[in-house]
Specification:
Elements: H1 9-17, E1 42-43, E2 49-50, E3 72-78, E4 83-93, H2 98-101, E5 104-112, E6 115-123, E7 131-137, E8 143-150, E9 157-166, E10 179-181, E11 184-189, E12 208-213, E13 219-224, E14 233-238, E15 245-249, E16 261-266, E17 272-278, E18 285-293, E19 295-299, E20 303-304, E21 310-311, E22 327-331, E23 336-338, E24 343-346, E25 349-351, E26 356-358, E27 364-367, E28 371-373, E29 376-378, E30 383-388, E31 392-396, E32 399-402, E33 404-410, E34 413-415, E35 419-422, E36 425-428, E37 431-434, E38 439-442, E39 451-455, E40 459-462, E41 465-471, E42 474-475, E43 477-481, H3 490-494, E44 523-526, E45 539-540, E46 555-559, E47 565-566, E48 569-575, E49 584-586, E50 601-605, E51 611-613, E52 626-631, E53 636-641, E54 646-647, E55 654-655, E56 660-664, E57 672-674, E58 679-680, E59 698-705, E60 711-717, E61 730-731, E62 742-746, E63 752-757, E64 765-772, E65 777-785, E66 793-799, E67 805-808, E68 813-818, E69 829-835, E70 842-844, E71 854-857, E72 866-869, E73 875-876, E74 880-883, E75 889-897, E76 904-912, H4 915-931
């Protein structure tokens, strides 16, 4: 509201009813004579209006700035801002040399005409064009008065009065006062803006306003003034108030008026600061528009991820993709994408039904959002990490498979797929992994057993976890087990193998000795305080299948699917995983029963779903630094001594997941604990649960001599790999002692190998074997491992220098002379390998008569060499033949199957009778079979 002017009732009535500036602006002779025509305009830019003293007379002498009681002119204005600049410019005068010496005196007043309050004055410069300026603080809506006189003269003075509103700084003038915005259109004004910063893409753009923006999506933000501002804008994006400039754009192509537009990756929940400024200090107004759109790359065909097979729409023009944390990937139906790079960082990862994503190089895949598999994801040995603050989900296919999987947080993860299978390690670094009632499985197989890695304090697991332990084919025997989950019962083990000798087992009344009434429980724990003098006395069976498997307790379980041997099988338990956020105590005790040989023995178990490094198990002072496990293959307990670092059998100092083991206490200080730091990534999937490495189809050859202690080995694996050099092979490393012998083989593509993983033996072949001596003398090549390999193949070593040929089996050796000067080329030996043939002989009838057709069948696999010698001079190479004999007699039939070095023979005597004698023989046979109450042919 304008302030009242004490100018008389008539003026007030007229002023209140007439529009502003209805009249041309002219000055008044006195303050009291001011009316509507004497109000001068206020603008943000100088708008000169004439203000002359011609015809005026003196009214007052306000004092200051050389003022006097001279002819003066009056005007007033209504303020629009908190600062106003009043400028008077001399444009004309009368009198001698006035153009050189004329000057004006300018005053600005507050108050009323009857009670003026001087706010400021200025004695202007001399001459035409000189100015006087007064800057005053004003209140928007209030009226202020202006007086102009000629200095020391009543002569005419002509000039222009300019009243300029000094714009107030915008509310978002400073970064700390940035206006909070979301996606949408936001008006702005930079008039009156201040600042000292300049953008990297502009010049002198210190006048700025600020906005603070948190995207609602992860994708791509667009910040623009394109064609929507009345001055030359510049846009800057920062990561914090006065922080690092992330992006800058001045003049965007296609944007009128030198306006701006920038595009930058957006992350939901992350805050950005937007600065709007003007090139070279320009200011004005406009609209800032902010949008956020997801970035999704859709496969358009099959191929490598780095090939131009992507588009931003489901059906688009194929091109190259830019994989970034703000971008998502969708492999569409019918497409197979191979990931042949080491690292990929994405928002969401989706494979649609019918699509395939093959992580062929074992990539590291970082996911900021969700994982949805409707098709096929082949994890190979890849590592998938969920990271970032937003919540994550695993959804899609019935089973989602991973090798290594990590929740790095801080966002939580929820499982929505039916099941999640982990084949390597599950890492929980930050956030909560919520199984959500779904099946989450740590898989175990012949090559590896998955684990739950160290769980960090800020991470957690909600729900059940199924943990497997693979038992390889081999020996039916005792195995020491434990449970890495809470709440599991003996009944879960009952579901995996046959049980007996306790309530609820498959066969509860199992007694030993039979009929003794003494139960023989097939699952047992150990009671250390038992007073029996025999170590076996401490074993006790479970009370029933509902008995809870205690964390840290070990159990002995007799398991296998046959009396002496077993096929491979999997033992698993399901429940909340044991996490040692604080140390877990193992149930170790010491009881002095007077039998030192049995006192202090404790059967404990690994309580965590991971292998443990025994050196990180905190043992009580009276607990020996040794642990024992039962080896089903050797039938004996094997050990690891942590103090000496020596172990028997296959022991390496690590305790497998789900492994029971023995500890021995010698006194009462038995407190033994384990925590998350003891976990180690040792993925061996079998030993010592069945001796996996002893069951491998390996031929191991060792070269040694009596000349010194040195030796070398060459290994052949007839299960993994192929004849060419591949990842299953191990190259020969020739760094050695100068006096050491060396032994190696070579792949068919000429790579020297220490381990030659050839693959299965399905046909005969030869492998060169090279030797090199550091000292001249006698050497021996010995077969140190071959039993499993010989189940599918036969081996013969040929000395190419002497011509000697030796059939190989475990323990066989061949000695030879070798000079240190002898070159390794050509090879000294040739290893001959042939598949071991299988056959099932049938001869029908077994007692033929002269001239009767006989069917001889070898039952070999197709392609196996066969030679029949029928004993009457007839030779045949057919797997199955029909033949008759012309004369009665006994004929020795010899079947030769296979070829060197795996040529096997079967021999049978065929009795051919005359017709009369054969009939008598038949009567006797029939009579004997009938007497037995059955017909036997």
């Amino acid at each position: 509201m304008k302030r009242s002017l004490l100018l008389g009732s008539l003026f007030l009535t007229v002023f209140a009813t007439l529009p502003v500036f209805l009249y041309a602006q002219v000055p008044a002779n006195t303050c009291g004579a001011l009316g509507p025509a004497n109000e001068y305009p206020v603008a943000f830019t100088c708008t000169p209006v004439a203000m002359n003293t011609n015809g005026m007379s003196p009214s007052i002498n306000p004092g200051g700035c050389g003022a006097g009681n001279n002819d003066d002119a009056w005007a007033y204005f209504v303020a629009t801002t908190t600062q106003t600049q009043v400028t008077y410019t001399n444009t004309g005068c009368s009198g001698f040399l006035c153009g050189l010496f004329v000057s004006s005196v300018l005053h600005v007043f507050d108050g009323s005409c009857g009670s003026l309050v001087q706010l400021g004055c200025d004695l202007g410069g001399f001459g035409i064009g000189s100015q006087g300026t007064v800057n005053v603080m004003t209140t928007p809506g209030n009226t202020y008065f202006v007086r102009v006189q000629r200095w020391l003269s009543d002569a005419n003075l002509a000039g222009d009065l300019c009243i300029t509103a000094i714009a107030d700084p915008p509310v978002n003038d400073d970064c700390v006062d940035a206006t909070v915005i979301s996606e949408g259109v936001h008006p702005f004004v930079t008039a009156g803006a201040t600042g000292v910063l300049t953008a990297s893409c502009s010049v002198g753009d210190t006048k700025d306003v600020w906005f603070v923006y948190t995207p609602s999506c992860t994708g791509e933000m667009t910040v623009t003034t394109c064609g929507d501002a009345d001055f030359d804008t510049a846009l800057s994006l920062l990561d914090a108030c006065s922080g690092v400039e992330l992006a800058c754009q001045d003049d965007a192509p296609g944007c009128a008026g030198f306006t701006s537009q920038l595009v930058y990756p957006a992350y939901a929940g992350q805050t950005y600061w937007i600065r709007v400024s003007g090139y070279q200090g320009e200011s004005g107004s406009g609209n800032l528009t902010v949008s956020c759109d997801p970035v999704v790359w859709y496969s358009q065909g099959s191929g490598s991820a780095w090939q131009p097979i992507w588009a931003r729409t489901p059906a688009g023009v194929p091109g190259y993709a830019t994989f970034a944390p703000n971008a998502s990937v969708v492999v569409q139906a019918g497409h197979t994408v191979q990931m042949d790079i080491s690292t990929m960082h994405l928002k969401d990862f989706t494979v649609e039904p019918g699509g395939v994503f093959d992580a062929i190089v074992g990539i590291d895949l970082y996911v900021e959002g969700d994982w949805t598999i409707g098709g096929t994801y082949l994890p190979r040995t890849s590592y998938v990490q969920f990271r970032g603050g937003q919540a994550h989900s695993i959804a899609g296919a019935a089973t989602c498979s991973f090798y290594d999987l990590e929740l790095a947080g801080p966002g939580d993860l929820i499982v929505q797929a039916d099941s999640v299978h982990v084949f390597g390690s599950l890492y929980l670094t930050d956030g909560d992994f919520n199984a959500n009632g779904k099946e989450v499985v740590l898989r175990s197989g012949p090559a590896a057993t998955a684990r739950l890695g160290p769980v960090e304090p800020s991470a957690s697991y909600t729900g059940n976890l199924r943990i497997q332990r693979y038992i390889p084919a081999g020996i039916t025997n005792w195995r020491l087990l434990s449970s890495p989950v809470g709440g599991a019962t003996v009944n879960q083990w009952k579901q995996d193998f046959f049980t007996a000798g306790f309530p609820g087992s498959h066969y509860p009344p199992f007694y030993s000795p039979p009929g003794s009434g003494i139960l023989w429980p097939s699952i047992r724990c150990y009671n250390e305080p038992d007073p029996g003098a025999d170590q076996q006395d401490g074993f006790i069976g479970p009370s029933g299948v509902g008995e809870v498997i205690l964390a840290g307790r070990g159990y002995a379980a007799w398991c296998g699917d046959n009396l002496n041997t077993t096929t491979s099988f999997v033992i698993d338990v399901k429940g909340p995983p044991n996490i040692a956020a604080s140390p877990l105590a193992l149930p170790v005790s010491y009881t002095d029963t007077g039998s030192p040989l049995v006192d202090g023995w404790n059967l404990v178990g690994n309580p965590l779903p991971s292998a443990l490094d025994f050196s990180d198990v905190l043992l009580g002072p009276d607990v020996e630094p040794v642990f024992w496990v039962f080896d089903p293959v050797s039938g004996n307990s094997i050990f690891w001594n942590e103090s000496s670092g020596i172990g028997s059998g296959q022991m390496n100092g690590n305790i497998r997941s789900s492994q029971g083991f023995w500890l021995h206490a010698t006194g009462p200080n038995t407190s033994t604990t384990v925590d998350e730091s003891a976990k180690i990534n040792d993925p061996n999937g079998g030993a010592p649960f069945g001796g996996l490495s002893m069951m491998q189809p390996i031929l191991r050859l060792k070269i040694a001599s009596g000349l010194n202690q040195f030796s070398d080995e060459a290994l052949f694996h007839f299960g993994a790999g192929d004849p060419t050099y591949d990842p299953a092979d191990v190259q020969k490393f020739f760094f050695s002692h100068a006096e050491a012998p060396q032994l190696w083989s070579r792949s068919i593509d000429s790579v020297d190998l220490a381990l030659n993983a050839w693959g299965s033996v399905d046909q005969s072949f030869q492998l060169p074997l090279f030797v090199k001596a550091g000292v001249s003398g006698s050497y021996t090549v010995e077969v140190t491992e071959a039993v499993t390999a010989m189940s599918q193949a036969c081996f013969e070593l040929e000395d190419l220098l002497t011509g000697a040929r030796v059939e190989l089996e475990e323990g066989v050796s061949h000695s030879f002379q070798l000079a240190s000067s002898t070159a390794a080329e050509p090879p000294r030996f040739m290893l001959h390998v042939a598949p071991r043939p299988e056959f099932l002989v049938s001869v029908s009838p077994m007692f033929p008569i002269v001239g009767e057709p006989i069917l001889f069948s070898s039952g070999v696999m197709p392609g196996t060499p066969v030679v029949w010698d029928l004993g009457d001079g007839t030779i045949s190479m057919d797997p199955q033949i029909q033949h008759s004999y012309a004369m009665p007699g006994n004929y020795t039939v010899v079947l030769t199957v296979g070829e060197e070095p795996c040529e096997l023979q079967y021999q049978e005597v065929i009795e051919v009778s005359s017709a009369t004698s054969r009939e008598e023989s038949r009567k006797e046979e029939l009579r004997a079979c009938y007497q037995e109450g059955a017909l036997m042919l």
